[in-house]
Specification:
The protein is mainly α. The chain has 4 helices and 3 strands. Helix 1 packs across helix 3 and helix 1 packs across helix 4. The N terminus is likely disordered.
Length: about 90
């Protein structure tokens, strides 16, 4: 199945990841933080599709991480070098 997010949600995701750090205990908290920063309506499905699309094409790093020495995964939104370029030159 090919994921084609709304360009608006994908663009917002890249812009927010470029300007802000999102590091939350889970994806639900990550989505809530994203919405607070976006200050415009984005559905949960649009958010998930944008994350999947950006991850698939290499614009963001894998968001679910188990950091060294920790016992629980956290949800991070972090751009790859290609994602930084895409966020700078929309």
């Amino acid at each position: 199945m090919t994921v084609v997010p709304a360009p608006r949600a994908e663009g917002l995701l890249l812009t927010i990841a470029f300007r802000h750090r999102i590091n939350e205990p889970n994806v639900e908290a990550g989505f809530a933080r994203f919405l607070a920063l976006a200050q415009e309506p984005v559905t949960c499905d649009e958010f998930h599709d944008a994350v999947a699309s950006c991850l698939h094409v290499g614009l963001i790093h894998e968001p679910i991480r188990l950091s060294e020495g920790t016992l629980q995964c956290r949800w991070h939104l972090e751009l790859t070098p290609a994602g930084v370029t895409a966020a700078r030159d929309p």
